[in-house]
Write a structure and sequence with these properties.
The chain contains one helix and 16 strands. The chain is mainly β. The protein has one domain: Cupredoxins -  blue copper proteins (Immunoglobulin-like), CATH 2.60.40. Strands 5-11-10-7-8 form a five-stranded mixed sheet, with no helix packed on it. Strands 12-2-14-15 form a four-stranded antiparallel sheet, with no helix packed on it. The N and C termini lie far apart (72 Å). It binds copper (II) ion. The site of copper (II) ion has 5 residues, from loops.
């Protein structure tokens, strides 16, 4: 009896240690060539260690609104197999389309909510447009990995509960000038932060005056 209790305690302790080691946070900051925080940058991690793809929980974007005659958000990052809804919150009708090879589709002129979401079933980068409003644009980065996100206005994206190990990091931004950087990194069992720089050609996003009408 005593001996089985001891075994149980050792197992519980081992589980606890493992849990602590797996609870890694990784805060990635992306800046432009001038060192200014860069929002709308996609950060993707692919585990290079077999079997550690993670149970990591990352928020998946599941809708792209049309609001104020713009797409919101401008950049989305999802895992392959994600369905995205395109609700139209404007009073005017939109006609959303993509000619990108990773997902060719169109949702003909509509109000409110389309009948069904669009399934993004292939990795790649999709550029969205609207047939009615030429300036409207947005991007969807579809990743094989579930460890993917988009930087906020402070240039940050925060991964939590990552398993320690080796990862391939890729960064992408719609305005970037160079090829997509791909960097191998090792995550240890303490909290991690890293800053990366992307060379971009800044330009306005969906450059329309956001007037009240139609929205
Ligand atoms: Cu439109």
């Amino acid at each position: 009896m005593t001996s089985s209790l001891r075994v149980f305690c050792a197992f519980a302790l081992a589980s606890l240690v493992h849990f602590n080691a797996a609870a890694n946070d990784w805060r990635i900051t992306v800046v432009d060539q001038a060192g200014k925080p860069l929002d709308d940058a996609v950060v993707e991690l692919v585990s290079l260690d077999a079997g550690s793809e993670a149970d990591a929980a990352v928020m998946q974007q599941t809708s792209i609104k049309q609001q104020g005659l713009n797409f919101v958000p401008f950049v989305s990052a999802v895992q392959v197999g994600t369905e995205i809804d395109f609700p139209n919150l404007d009073r005017t009708r939109h006609h959303v389309y993509s000619f990108s090879p990773a997902k060719v589709f169109e949702i003909q002129l509509y109000h409110d909510r389309p009948e069904q979401p669009i399934l993004f079933d292939q990795a790649g980068i999709v550029a969205l447009g609207c047939n009615i409003h030429d300036y409207m644009e947005a991007y969807v980065f579809i990743s094989e990995s579930n460890l993917v996100g988009v930087t906020d206005p402070t240039g940050q994206f925060h991964f939590s509960q990552l398993n320690p190990g080796r990862y391939q990091l890729r960064l992408w931004h719609p305005f970037q000038l160079d090829d997509m950087p791909s960097i191998e990194m090792t995550l240890d069992d303490s909290s991690n932060e890293a800053t990366f720089s992307l060379k971009v050609q800044h330009r306005p996003k969906q450059p329309t005056p956001q007037r009240g009408f139609g929205s």
